[in-house]
Amino acid sequence: MTFSARVLFLTGLSLTTFAACSEPGDSNSGGGGSSTTTPIGGGGAGGAGGSVSPSAKPVCTDPGSASGPTPDPRADTAGALSADGASFVIFGGDTATVICGDAPAHTHAGDTWLLDTACGGWTKIESPGPSARSRHAVALDPASNRALLFGGRFRAGSSGAYTLYNDVWSFDFPTKTWTEVATTGTPPSKRSNTAAAVVNGKLVVYGGNSSTSGLTFTPLADAFVLDLATNAWSKLDPAGAAPKARLFHAMAAHPSKDIVYVHSGGDANAFTGPFFTDTWSLDVATGAWTELATDTPDGTGRIKLGLWATVPEGAADPSLFVFGGHDDGKLGNRNDILTGPVTATLTLESLRPGDTFNKSGSGACSFPTDFTTLEEGSPERRSAFAVAALPDGSAAVVFGGDSDCGRLSDAHWYDAVNNTWTPIRATLPGLVCLRTGSTTCTSLCN
User: Fold this and answer.
1) Which among 158, 145, 90, 190 is positioned nearest to 425, based on CA atoms?
2) What's the confidence (pLDDT) of residue 39?
3) Full 3-state SS string of 214-264
4) What does the alpha-carbon distance between residue 366 and residue 415 come to, in Å, rounded to a whole number?
5) Ordered domains of the chain (ranges, CATH)
6) Which residues of the chain are under the pLDDT cut of 50?
């Protein structure tokens, strides 16, 4: 029997985990193993210097050591890029590395790490902050240069119900400290797998999963706004059409208007798909949703993807950028870049093709070294990663996530103006064998 990514997408996790229709660490799933964090690139401490253009990665003026600490490899994490792009913060996530044939219990992290985007040095932040969790949402409040965290889930061990959250926390970039935000009004219900964005002093939260079980999903379709001037929550009640309930979707803020965009995601069948391919815009001032007729290159939907918006120089309309995620039957984990201008229709075209399918596997968890043809200059294929863009959307940072060969701890800068990737800090865990530089690869992962 010949196996391909079309078969292995059933996990919704990674191509090397097969025949599991639940989540890692739940009673009827398989996968496991661990990784080490051996740095192979990047730098140590040092501040950001000048840059060639506002969208280019900040220039390192003090490279320092390349052997500094890095966060444990993780997925289901979230982060934000400081308003000037010099720092990238991540919090929490799931550090249990999924390897084909075994799935360990979830290990929800409660640590905060700050990345110097110029030189690649990570600093662990010891300030008290949110409780350990994963599948939370983080968004930048550019006016205050702070990251806002909402929701998520936690469970100790491999069985029982998850604890869900709807608290709000603020990470201040200048002081490197966390503060819980005391809110009033009607907050969103406790949830995980939601999406959030900040537009003009408002934190917008949409959708997510209200199930406390690791074996089922209960997708949500509600939208809430937190006024950051008063810290008061209000629910948006659209009178017209609205998106279907979903989780594992992505949200992006318009760089200058009270509009957010929601793209793709899954429903109660998000373990297997099919996933959504639609795109919606939400007018935060009126609460009105508008569906954009969306066309994608291969017609597949995605979950656990990255999305951001920018207004190209001289353009009247913003453009959306899509990176990575897990598709519902083509390749599995992706590392391509799609983009298209937002009008009444949205035609997403391939800006970078990413890795492309080359050769099928011979069985469950058995994939050849050349399963894909690697795209030079692009990071590893991944899903469930942290992604954060500059306020104007001209560049974004990607960290960690699930790959075909485990969990990742690398970080990369994407220049959306020049369509270039630049490694910030490269590490070995989670890379397919060919990307590690090995000349003795015998399969996809070793």
Assistant:
1) 90
2) 27
3) CCCCCEEEEEEEEECCCCEEEEECCCCCCCCCEECCEEEECCCCCEEEEEC
4) 35
5) 5-436 (2.120.10.80)
6) 1-51
